[in-house]
Amino acid sequence: MARYLIGNWKCHKSSDSSKEWLDRFDKAYRPQDGLEVIVAPPAVYLESLSFHVKRLQLRHFSLGAQDISPFPRGSYTGAIAADMVKPFASYAIIGHSERRRYFHETVTDLVNKAAEAADVGLTPIICIENGDTLSSLFALKDIDCPGMILAYTPVDSLNFRIPESVARVGVVIKRIANYFPRRPIVYGGALNVDNFREYLEIDGLSGLFTATASLEVQSFSTLCRAMGASL
Ligand SMILES: O=C[C@H](O)COP(=O)(O)O
Question: What Gene3D superfamilies does the entry give (predicted)?
Fold first, then answer.
């Protein structure tokens, strides 16, 4: 199974600084078979960055949307439908705890978004913030999308900026893998260049999901190189 390094830029960067990030990353990046790098910029930059990625001919590198609409095209002011994103991105982050916390999204939204993504061929990256409530995501089992990635992102780690212990992450990864067999599972929450290495050893873990560490090329490239070397 491939490994993944995901960088979620959240609501950061300008159009120019996004392109500069890519130019600098391109110089540091050594693509490796078996390691897929995914960066999710703010939606307004997806189109221009997708052309920039093509120009740079970055291999094993894809863009992702940070969110998509739970609805298809229609009268939904402010929404961005999955098929509008598809020409510019390959993945869509869905159900991030910040979407739930600040935008009041529900599990039903999450499932509908995952279905919309799968329908147009976007690979969903489903955020799971609690390993004890997996049964609430039962409906995901009906969505036909073999590549779906599951991202364990415990909300306390995000909020308190302390990563969950390796041992605890290992336990939850096993639980998720039992519930959703054969899916790549990644961990995210307060990872940085000083603490990420031990997480790469977790049995069944397919990668890392970062935000803060992805904003600077230097830290993201450090993670990328180490993951490549660990393959
Ligand atoms: O979207 C990614 C997760 O919220 C992790 O963010 P973080 O790496 O800044 O803790």
Answer: Aldolase class I
